[in-house]
Design a protein that fits this description.
The chain is mostly beta strands. The chain has one helix at 78-85; strands spanning 12-17, 27-29, 34-48, 57-72, 95-106, 113-130, 138-155, 160-163. Strand 6 and strand 7 (138-155) form a beta hairpin. The two termini are 27 Å apart.
């Protein structure tokens, strides 16, 4: 019997605010139509080497995080519709927030509540529906993270984030 769980992509949940200019936040899950979500970083380093040392030392100084997402157009799904609407948006019109939730971080005392991180993001839809006829309307783009995350909790049933340190 193992002491670990092997999560699937379904267990890493992304919720994006599809009404960033609205009075309240409306978080919708990145899911329907999307079959790929690949995180990556653009890492910056600084290498230091002193005169009396043969080899240098590397320090990791910053990371720029992004998530490439792709799939097919699913008209009527709230996030899929929002994502495709971002095709021609720039500047502040492309900014929103994203909540990242890992299903294995569910609080035992309150089922459906998870440790979460909220990020300021920019949504860049680079293809709002194109490709070979047999493939349907393929969509793709990148969600760029701006700055540091805010830690807190996320209630999946109400799609609400509460800022605060989680143990």
């Amino acid at each position: 019997m193992s002491n670990y769980t092997i999560p699937t992509p379904k267990d890493r949940m992304m919720f994006v605010d599809v009404t960033p200019k609205g009075e309240t936040r409306t978080y919708e899950r990145v899911g329907k139509g999307f079959d790929s979500a690949t995180p990556s970083t653009n890492t910056q380093t600084k290498v230091m080497q002193w005169l009396d040392e043969k080899n240098g030392s590397t320090a990791l100084t910053t990371k720029s995080i992004q998530k490439a997402i792709s799939g097919q157009r699913a008209v009527g799904d709230p996030f899929n519709d929002y994502f495709c609407s971002m095709f021609d948006k720039v500047g502040a019109d492309a900014e929103t927030t994203m909540i990242l939730v890992d299903a294995w971080n569910e609080e035992t005392e309150t089922p459906g509540t998870y440790k979460a991180k909220k990020y300021n993001v920019v949504v860049d839809c680079t293809n709002d529906g194109g490709g070979a006829v047999a493939d349907g309307l393929l969509i793709e783009g990148i969600i760029y993270v701006n700055g540091d995350p805010v830690e807190g909790t996320f209630v999946e049933a109400t799609k609400t984030f509460t800022e605060g340190t989680v143990e």
